[in-house]
Amino acid sequence: MGLLSILRKLKSTPDQEVRILLLGLDNGGKTTLLKQLASEDISHITPTQGFNIKSVQSQGFKLNVWDIGGQRKIRPYWRNYFENTDLLIYVIDSADRKRFEETGQELAELLDEEKLSGVPVLIFANKQDLLTAAPASEIAEGLNLHTIRDRVWQIQPCSALTSEGVQDGMNWVCKSVNAKRK
Amino acid sequence: MMLGFIYQFLHSSFLWFWMKWFLRQVTGKCELQRICHGYQPGAARTSRIENSLKSSKNKVLQDAVNVQEDAVESCVTHIMKEKQIKEQKDPKFKVNLRQCLVQISGYNALFLSVEEQRKEVFDSDNEAHEKMLLKLWDLLMPSVELESRITKQWGNIGFQGDDPKTDFRGMGMLGLVNLVFFSEKYTATARHVLSHANHPSLGYSYAIVGINLTEMAYSLLRSGALKPHFYNTVAGKPHIDHFHQLYCYLAYEFDKFWVEEKPASIMEFNIYREKFHDKVKGFLLEPEVSLVLKIESKNCPDD
C-alpha cells in the first residue's frame, strides 16, 4: 500500500463509533471506571441515579460508554439500553463476596437477552486493590464463565481506583470490536 | 451596555492605574474606601473588595484575600498603613473593611470544615456514625421500625441496597449529616419530599439523590460560586450549619423542580439535575442572591 492510499484511508475512516454498555450491581465501581477512562477526577463520586455517558477516544475508536445505575430498583431499565450495543462491560466488586450470587444471576440474565446475543463481554473483577478481593480466577469459576460459548469473553482483574488493569481490559475491548467489525 | 464595555476596557488596561490615581487625587480616597463608602454591605461590597484586593499590585493587599480569621485585625491595620488611610478621616472604613475580611476568610474556613466532613468516611464501627444513620431512619419513618441494621427497608428512604454505608462514597459523612440536618430541622417538609420521591411513577431515590445534591452544594462551594450567597446571608463568619441550610434549600427546591418538570422516568435524572444546576448557577450570578429555604405553607403546614 502506497503512502497516498494510506493517507486516503486515514482520511476516509474517521473514528468509528462504538457503543459500550457498562453494567453491574450498585457499588461495583462503574462510574469510577468511566471517569478513569475519561481521565477525570474520581474523588467526589456519588451513587448513579439514572445513567452517565461519556465518549472516550481509543485506538482509532470513539467509545461511547453508557454507565447505567446498578441499584435493584433501576435494573429493569437496563434493557432500554441494549439496542445496538457493540460490547458489554460487566463490573464486579471482587471484595463483596456476599453478593457474588446476585451478581452472577444478573450476568446470566444479561447473557440470555436476545438483544445482546453474540455481543462480546468483558468482565472487570474490580477492586483488586482491596486485601479481601477475590482473585479473578476464583470469580470466573464461581460464575461458570467457561460455559459461555455463544460469544467471546474475557475476565480482567483491575482496580478502577488505581487504574491498574483498566488499560489491559480496554485493549481487549478494541481488539474484540475490531475482530467483530471485519 | 456601553458603559459596561468602557468599564471593562478601563479595568483591564493600564489606564485603570491612572484612573484610580486620578480618583484618589479628586476624592482623597483609595479604591477600597470608595467601595466601602459606595456599596451596601453584602456581596455588593465584599465581592468588590475581594476583587480589588486580588488585583492589587501591593503584596499586603493581595495576601489579604487568604487571611486567617485570627489575623484579620492586624491585616486591617496593615492595609490602612500601606494605603495611608487615617482612621480619624474615615472612621467607618476600618469596621467595614474588617467585616469584609471576616466574610472572605470565613468563606475559606467554611470550605475547609466542609471538606473535613466530606473526607470523613462513614464507618460502621463508629458508634456516632451508626447512631446518626439510625436517627435518619427514625426521623423519616417514625411509624416503621427498622427490622435489622442490614435490610431491604433502607430502599424505602432511597438508599440503593441493604446497607446504606456504600452509598456515601465521595461525600462521606457530609452526605449523611446533610440528610439528617434536613430531616431534623424541617421534619414535615423532609417527609413531604420523601413522599414525592416514593411516588410510583414520578419518584426518585430520596437518599441517593440527596447525596447527589450534597455533591452539588459541595462543588458550588469549592468553585467559589456560593460566595455571593454567603456574603449576602451571613454578616460574619459562616458556620458549617449555614452550609447544611443551603443543602436544605437545594433538597427542597430540587424536589419542587422535579415535580413540576415531570420527567418521563428516573433514568432522566442527570438531565434534570443539570437543568436544576444551571438554574441555581443563574441565581448565583445575581448580586442580590440569597438561597434561603422558603417553605410554601400549602406544602407543609406544620413546619
Automatic annotation (TrEMBL), chain A:
One of its GO terms (biological process) is protein transport. Belongs to the small GTPase superfamily. Arf family. CDD domains: Arl3. It holds the Pfam family Arf. This is ADP-ribosylation factor-like protein 3. It is a peripheral membrane protein. It is found in: Cytoplasm, Cytoskeleton, Microtubule organizing center, Centrosome; Golgi apparatus membrane. PROSITE patterns: ARF. Keywords: Golgi apparatus, GTP-binding, Lipoprotein, Magnesium, Metal-binding, Myristate, Nucleotide-binding, Protein transport, Transport. GO terms for cellular component: centrosome; Golgi membrane. Gene3D superfamilies: P-loop containing nucleotide triphosphate hydrolases.
UniProtKB/TrEMBL annotation, chain B:
Keywords: Signal. Transmembrane segments: none annotated. It comes from the Eukaryota. Residues 128-284 form the ELMO domain. The keyword Signal applies. The keyword Signal applies. InterPro entries: ELMO_dom, ELMO_domain-containing. GO terms for molecular function: GTPase activator activity. Residues 1-28 form the signal peptide. GO terms for cellular component: membrane. This is ELMO domain-containing protein 2. It comes from Bagarius yarrelli (Goonch).
